[in-house]
Design brief:
about 575 residues; alpha+beta; Immunoglobulin-like; Rossmann fold; 3 domains; seven-stranded mixed sheet; 28 strands; about 20% helix
Length: about 575
């Protein structure tokens, strides 16, 4: 009914009706070549919808649209079923979407009263709509967002309740062990040195490598060590998707010899050790040439154990808040803000690099902060009235309460500061890092996590103190993002990032990697499409946060709080007239 007979299979871009049974629709996300962090299932309910039918109540349907990042075009993602005769529907059909913490996913829910079998929405009565982001739903208490339906002037259109539930398969890992028997001998002098390579299949039929075992030397009957892999990486949560396993003979010069291959699936492997999990290793070339070819050996699954991991969303759903603080570099090396060459230039027509970076990162993080109040600090300026130099001043001019309301409030305070302070120096990071660390040190129970965004033009003056601050902060529930703007060399920032060499101070190493650095110039879009380039910037700086967050919780043995009990809104709401 109603365009849903095409419920199987994937929806074509731009084709309305039909419901994609997986959220990974091809056009869906221009940025995401990575495996989604997880999949979430959205459930939709409404209360007090408009009544558009004369003799009975409305027959509502919900249509979900997602927005392409570059061109802002809304595309239909899917539809629920139609529920007859109700103003308080609880839709059964769910929307399954890929969830990335580091991306802003704009959503639009449209509601219609269905009057005929036509899949064409213009033939039905519009009941209103609701706009939100996926992060807003997930970041709401209990991952449950309640919002007013809008879109029909002068009418109360009711409310919509959207709940997000993480799909179970996305948090499982499996511990597997394999052995092989009678593999083909590939080495002239000794036996083979075999190893296995696992590939998951993609939607388009291609394969992506997802695991390599170690090499077992000089044997045709190897037993490999058990290894752990997430179900997402192995098959993207699709239990019947093909998994291809190749067997190679390792060679020192890197030209490993192909012994053979076999295919399986998560569902087959999950049967564990049994006759079903003994695989013939086939070399297609040999099979084609030799009539008597049987196989190139066998590989046997020895054990298969499923482990469920706690996820980032478990903590968010349990009420952990992410507190976002921003620190902006007001040193003289940025140039005079009244000159177009300055990195702080206040162009009336477009954001400067500081403004763009702040907005890109802030707009995503704000969904996870319930009060939307963000402390905004500056460093490296002389302050009125006496011209003293400060390395942690409140952008809003109120040291007792440096909080600004929303990202727009932070932007406003930033522009106000540019008019009142004098850019000076030196560039000291340690004071703002210590400022946030003081807050983080006071709540180590997992109920709050702190993210500090430092935007700077680069050349740092207090490297030793900053390293010490970072090493100390690595024991606290906090992460630091550094965005480097302007043309400077950012070698010192790369060192703070600690991706290559873990950062240390006075012989003490950081307990975990908490710094992520990116140069802004890598994201300037030559075509002038700032929307897309800023989405990429946010993606790259925020992608590591969930893992850094989990590493803190794991090290401290903090489990997620239980989510608040699911709230079932009352069906019959008494409309009291005041």
């Amino acid at each position: 009914v109603f365009g849903l007979e095409k419920a199987a299979g994937r929806q074509e871009p731009g084709r309305s009706g039909g419901f994609p049974n997986m959220a990974s629709v091809g056009y869906f996300n221009v940025l995401s070549s990575s495996i989604p962090a997880t999949k979430v299932e959205l459930s939709v309910s409404c209360r007090n919808l408009l009544d558009r039918d004369t003799f009975s109540k409305s027959d509502p349907i919900c249509v979900l649209y997602t927005q392409a990042i570059g061109n802002k075009e809304w595309r239909e993602f899917g539809r629920t079923e139609v529920i007859d005769n109700t103003l308080n529907p609880d839709f059964v059909r769910k929307f399954i979407m890929d969830y990335f913490f580091e991306e802003r996913e704009n959503l639009r829910f449209d509601f219609y009263d269905v009057d005929s079998k036509s899949p064409n929405l213009s033939k039905h009565d519009f009941l209103g709509q609701m706009f939100c982001t996926l992060g807003e739903i997930v970041g709401s208490q209990g991952s449950r967002l309640e919002k007013s339906i809008v879109g029909i002037p002068g009418k109360k259109c009711g409310t919509v309740i959207v709940t997000a539930e993480e799909l179970g398969c996305c948090r499982d890992s499996v511990l597997m062990q394999f052995c092989a028997n009678k593999l083909d001998k590939k080495d002239f002098f000794g036996k083979s040195d075999p190893f296995l390579v696992f590939h998951r299949s993609n939607e388009d039929g291609s394969f992506t490598i997802c695991h390599k075992t170690e090499v077992v030397k000089n044997t045709l009957n190897p037993v490999w060590q058990a290894f752990k892999i997430s179900v997402r990486a192995l098959c993207n949560g699709d239990y019947d998707r093909t998994i291809k396993v190749e067997v190679y003979d390792w060679d020192r010069d890197g030209s490993h010899d192909f012994i053979g291959e076999f295919t399986t699936s998560y569902r087959e492997l999950s049967r564990g050790q049994s006759q079903f999990n003994v695989y013939e290793v086939i070399n297609p070339k040999k099979k084609g040439k030799k009539k008597k070819y049987v196989n190139s050996g066998t590989v046997t699954l020895l054990s298969f154990l499923i482990e469920t991991e706690v996820s980032f969303l478990d903590y968010i759903k349990g009420g952990t808040q992410i507190n976002f603080t921003v620190a902006i570099d007001f040193t003289a090396s940025n140039g005079n803000p009244s000159q177009p060459t300055s990195l702080h230039y206040m162009n009336p027509y477009q954001l400067n690099a500081y403004g763009m970076a702040l907005k890109a990162v802030g707009e995503i993080i704000q969904d996870y902060d319930s009060d939307k109040m963000f402390p905004a600090l500056g460093f490296g300026a002389r302050l009125p009235p006496d011209g003293r130099v400060s390395h942690e001043f409140a952008l809003n001019g109120n040291p007792q309460n440096p909080y600004c309301h929303g990202i727009d409030g932070v932007m406003e305070a930033y522009y106000r500061s540019l008019k009142s302070v004098q850019l000076y120096g030196p560039t000291n990071f340690a004071p703002v890092i210590n400022h946030v660390a003081r807050y983080a040190a006071s709540v180590k129970d997992g109920s709050q996590y702190f993210v500090l965004l430092i935007i700077t033009d680069g050349v740092i003056s207090d490297m030793a103190q900053t390293k010490e601050s970072i090493v100390n902060a690595s024991k606290l529930p906090m992460s630091i993002i550094i965005v480097g703007v302007g043309p400077a060399e950012f070698d010192a920032m790369e060192e703070l990032d600690g991706d290559v060499v873990r950062i240390s101070s006075r012989g003490k190493f950081a307990e975990r990697d908490i710094v992520q650095f990116v140069p802004f110039r890598d994201y300037i879009d030559r075509s002038g499409n700032h929307v897309l380039s800023m989405a990429r910037l946010a993606k790259d700086v925020l992608a590591e946060i969930p893992e850094q967050f989990l590493s803190y919780m794991r090290v401290r043995g903090i489990k997620p709080s239980p989510a608040p009990p699911p709230y079932t809104p009352p069906i019959h709401v008494l409309q009291t007239q005041i």
